[in-house]
Amino acid sequence: MERTDRRGFMRRAALGTALI
């Protein structure tokens, strides 16, 4: 769960920045 959380966080941050 920790590994997916870290990867998901980085992926969400990149997607959020691209959207914004």
Structural class: mainly alpha
Give the overall pLDDT as a whole number.
75
The rounded Rg comes to: 9 Å
Strand content: under 5%
SSE order, one letter for each helix or strand:
H
Uncertain runs with pLDDT below 50, 5 residues or more? none
Described by strand count, sense and barrel closure, the largest sheet is: none
Characterize the overall form: rod-shaped
The portion of residues assigned to helices is over 70%
* End-to-end separation: 27 Å
Q: Total number of β-strand segments?
A: 0
**Count the helices. How many?**
1
Describe this structure in words.
This protein has one helix and no strands. It is mostly helical. The radius of gyration is 9 Å and the shape is rod-shaped.
List strands and helices in order, with pairings.
Blueprint: H1 2-19
Quick take:
With 20 residues, the protein is mainly α. 90% of the residues lie in helices and 0% in strands.
State the main characteristics:
20 residues, mainly alpha, 1 helix, 90% helix
